Amino acid sequence: MTNRLAVFQAEIGSGITPSMPKLRAPFFLSGRNVRFGPWGVEVTSPWFRVVNKLSPDPVRGMHAINIGSNRVLFWGTHENLYKWDGVSADATEVGSGFSGVKTGTAPVPATVWSMAGEGEIVVATDNISPPQKSVAGGAFAVYAGFEDQYVRGNIFRAVGQYLVALDVGGAVGGVDVIAWHDAFNIEDWLPTENNTAGWIQAKDATGRIVAAEHLGTTGLLFYTQGSVHILIPAGGTRVFGQRKILSNVGAASKQAVVPVRQQHFVFDQEGIYVTDGRELKYIDDAAVRKFIYGNLDYDRISHVHGWHNQAHTEVQWFYPTKNLGMEGVGFNYVNNAWSLFPFELTSALPAGVFKAPIAGNSFGSIFETDPNFLGGGVNMTGTHLETAAVARLKTGYGTFGYGTVGYGGRNIPDG
After folding, report:
1. What are phi and psi for residue 299, nearest 5 degrees?
2. What phi and psi, each to the nearest 5 degrees, are found at residue 312?
3. Cα diameter, the chain
4. Structural domain count of the chain
5. How confident is the model at residue 43 (pLDDT cuts 50, 70, 90)?
6. DSSP characters over 184-205
């Protein structure tokens, strides 16, 4: 006769409950290097370094495009811009001499590049240096047409046939100004009676525009630190308008908003929420919120970065901690479970242009995750990382007592 270890009268709570008293934890109290998916607990996916490192500085801001039959990845640091063709062992420097901020403490944010594309043209801005433009994967040069009118920009996004700049400088610029070029000339940002270039001011915005992402087919949502707005196609010569859709919430940083189909998952200054552009719901319960925000270094909140791991139906955020490090958390939006990650990513792109997700960290390394699981990655000869982290799970004081279990390690992003 088989001996039973236990009989459960109901489902066991999935996910971690950090900062909850051990006697009250549903089952798992905390864990490292594991994720809670819809089908159970698994060790996190391995990461592979895919290109030789050219800079030891944090990677902040990435963009990938197809140029003919080739894939190109762009990324930036506070001083340089780089590209990789997805095949070569080495990356190429395609922009240099920028005067960004490496670390960034309040009130001065860390430099995060915002990039957008229109065909084979990629524009990039760090909100300090003159915005840059690359054509067909070539080196970046000053985006002259934009600089002539607005001097600087914080965020670029492609909206239909337009490149839209949010939070722009210049004579008619401002932290709440949105501008766009003429529909027939990407270099013409000066509004006249004979073109469709223009700008609007979000007068009801609560401070500076800090983030902007597309919400499925709904449109472009942009975030301040205290309000959320939608950019509205207006038609005619006006082209765009805007409307405030949420108040008393916003986004913590330029990379804090993660699009997942018709929803945005947002790391805000006081909680993490999901919105469909009409309503919002906080997804971090009391135990998770206390764990994250009790250890969040608000002076470096501009470092917050989130991305969508589609293969695991998970949104991950990495945030600065009070011990001057970084912590990672993941929310599985299928079973609403939370996981913790003992590594840091400073920028990442979901699978799309590249077959597997691509990410960078604060040491300047570029990684690919789990190419075998995802059916073949961009560089199957990539270097397996040196740092192996043991996966651990810790339970609370429940029916089975208190304990820690260790599993085999997986390689995680290091320097």
Report:
1. -65, -25
2. -115, 15
3. 87
4. 2
5. low
6. TBTT--S--TTS--EEEE-TT-
